[in-house]
Amino acid sequence: MMLKNENIQIRDPFVFTNKKDGKYYLFGSTDKNIWGPGTGFDVYVGEDLENWDGPYPVFRPDEDFYSEENFWAPEVHEYNGRYFMFATFFRKDNQHRGTGILVSDSLMGPFKPHSAGPVTPKNWFSLDGTLFIDEEGLPWMVFCHEWVQVEDGEICAVRLSEDLKESVGEPIVLFRASEAPWPTSFKHKTRKSPNNYVTDGTFMFRASNGELLMLWASFVNNVYAQGISRSSSGEITGPWIHDEKPIYHDDGGHGMVFKTFEGNLMLTLHSPNKTPLERPIFIPIEEKDGKIQVVD
C-alpha cells in the first residue's frame, strides 16, 4: 500500500539511501505506542521521499530477547558488507534502557541480535546510540546518558570492538546539555528539578570542509528542538562547540542528515513530538564551510 508522509506515524526517522536499487529506506520508532510493550521495527521504501511502500516488518523479537518494551530509534548502517541496526531497548534484567546492535544481510531484514545485549553501560539509562567511524577506520558509538538518571543529560562516546559486538573501555563524556546555549531546563510533571536538561538523538555528519558535526535534540521552553554542535579538533573526542540557536525549534527533532539521489542535503526529523501525531518531516538544507542552514 502506497502511503504519504502525512499517513506515517513514526518517531526518530532514519533514512538509508540505497544506491544499489535507487530507493530510500525509512526506519524509525514505528510502534503505535512506543512508551509501552514493543512489537518491533518496520521499514518504508520509496523513491521520492513523498510516496512510500510498506510498512514491512524488519525486526520482531524472539521470546528470549532481552527486552519487551521501549523499542526506540533504530538506525541502520552498512559496515563490512552487512547492515547493522543500532536501537534502544528497555532491559528485562534490570529495567534500564540501553542501545543494542542487531544485524542483517538485507535492508529488509530480518534483523537479529548481534550484541549479547545493550552495549551501553549496564547500570546507565542510555539511548539513541549511533555509529561513528573515526579517521583510523575504528568504530565508535555516540549515545546519550539520559537526563532521567543524571539530570543534566550527557552525550558520550565509547569505542566498539571491530566486529561491533561489544564496547571497548569506558565511555567518554563529550558534553552535557546545559553547556550548549540553546536548551532550557525541561519541566517534568514528576521530576521537579530545575536542572533537567535533555539530550536526545545523536547523529554524526562530516561537513565538506572536513569539520565533524553532531546533530542532537533537546527542549526550548518544553518544546522539542534540533541543534548542532561541532568538534573543533575534527575528532570525536572534541572539544565540542555549540551553535547559538537550534536549526529547528517547531516541536520537532531527533534528526539526521542524508544526501538525496540528486546530490542534495536533506534533514529529516519527526514533528510534532506527541504520540500518535508524529510524522516524518523532510527539510532541504545547505552546508557551506561547516555551517548548515535551511533552504528557503
Automatic annotation (TrEMBL):
Q: Which Pfam families match?
A: Glyco_hydro_43 (PF04616)
Question: Amino-acid biosynthesis among the record's keywords?
Answer: no
Keyword Hydrolase in record: yes
Q: Which residues form a coiled coil?
A: none
Which key words tag this protein in UniProt? Glycosidase, Hydrolase
Out of the domains of life, which is the source?
Bacteria
* Functional pathway: Glycan metabolism; L-arabinan degradation
Say which family it is in: Belongs to the glycosyl hydrolase 43 family.
What is the protein's name according to its record? Glycoside hydrolase
Q: Which organism is it from?
A: Evansella vedderi
